Amino acid sequence: MSALPPGSMIGILGGGQLGRMLAIAAARLGYHCHIFCPEADPPAAEVAAKHTRADYSDAAAMAAFARSCAVVTYEFENIPYEPVQAIAGLVPVRPGIEALRITQDRLFEKDFCTSRGIATAPYRAVANPADLCAAATALGLPLILKTRRMGYDGKGQFKIVSTEDTAPAFAALKSDALIAEGFIGFRRELSVVLARGLDGSIASWEPVENIHRNHILWRTHAPAVIDESLAVQVEQLATSLVEGLDYVGVLAVELFDCGTAILVNELAPRVHNSGHWTLDAAITSQFEQHIRAICGLPLGSPERLCDAVMENLIGDEVKTWPALLTEPNAKLHLYGKAEARPGRKMGHVTRLYPTGKSPQP
Ligand code: AMP
Q1: How far is the CA of 157 from the centre of ligand 1 (A)?
Q2: What own/partner pairs with CB < 8 Å and gap ≥ 24 does 141-146 have?
Q3: Atom of ligand 1 nearest to the CA of 155
Q4: Which CATH number does the domain housing residue 36 bear?
Q5: Do residues 170 and 208 share a domain?
Q6: Res. 155 pLDDT band, cuts 50 70 90
Q7: For 30-62, how does the pLDDT look when each residue is reduced to its tens digit (9 = 90+)?
Q8: Which of 60, 165, 225, 288 is the most buried (most CB within 10 A)?
């Protein structure tokens, strides 16, 4: 196994803020980045050496992109699978395409967790109203009906409280590739972000607690205040997942803490919003770690240097930037997006506190 030398070109599929922060981390290590995405002026292209603007289905553009890179990664899981599979014969794709195939489909993802002996919300595949009826009988009501693919930030979901919700749910979700999940009365939401290197080494940041508003992550508290035994359990299940996927890169595992049990909600095969705090409060950030992993470098230390509370700046909240810059313990990150649409992640701020002194959720 040989490490890619500085000066190599890293390809990133997707041009959003995650790609942007990956490209900045790559540049610090002396690498160049080539962004591939269909959008004009994406946040990542502004800080990268090259940008190809084309659809993922444009096979010739994808092949040319792949040939220009020493390794290709992706910053979101909702890229179509087949075009990525096609370039995997031309260039190493990390994380691998099997991890992408599994994590871009909620049903495959839950089946995979189950195969590793890891608990999730109870679930059933649903293709039509009869399946939903059977799922309601098996799982009870309420339940959440979700599209298997392409959902994010609560999109592609419908809460089913009674059988009368069936028709509106199918009308809203417009899909026959669905999954019904039992509704979990969790105590809180946690996540763990970890990395696996090309040599199989694993480095995990401590679990964090996440607070959502309108289905969008609002705040991440690092670290989560949890029992040592729960922390160990979380680390063990995350390790089992990255090993089972033969994973290379950063993976995020979203969890429901139910008090008596811990359930996996979702996997993200990439750097994750709940890992942004690592930019300012850990020895190695998730972005640097992902670049290290996919380039075959040794992983850096995930040690936390202080407590941190990360807050997303969504839509017009970004306009508070002048006040945020006057806070002595706040680190501001803006994504360079021109238009502050409602629900759009425009930036984030991480407030740093001495260890053990951060405000609790
Ligand atoms: P997801 O897109 O699957 O991460 O869901 C978005 C949010 O909806 C989660 O962060 C939870 O707050 C909530 N949620 C998702 N699935 C369930 C479930 N099975 N039971 C209760 N709440 C859920």
Answers
A1: 9
A2: 141/183, 142/183, 143/180, 143/181, 143/182, 143/183, 144/180, 144/181, 144/183, 145/169, 145/173, 145/178, 145/179, 145/180, 145/181, 146/106, 146/173, 146/178, 146/179, 146/180, 146/181
A3: 2
A4: 3.40.50.20
A5: no
A6: confident
A7: 999 999 999 999 999 999 999 999 999 999 999
A8: 288
